[in-house]
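Task: sequence design from structure.
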């Protein structure tokens, strides 16, 4: 699994936990380079 996949999974994990679509909580940066991957992972994360 590549780095982009881990970034997306961590971002989705933070989103599901209610922290928003962020990689590091408290930092406001774009964190999901493969933008099409996050919507595919979100429905399966619960």
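Answer:
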């Amino acid at each position: 699994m590549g780095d982009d996949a881990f970034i997306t999974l961590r971002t989705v994990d933070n989103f599901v936990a209610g922290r928003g679509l962020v990689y590091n909580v408290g930092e406001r940066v774009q964190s999901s380079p493969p933008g099409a991957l996050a919507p595919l992972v979100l429905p399966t994360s619960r």
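The chain has a mean pLDDT of 75.
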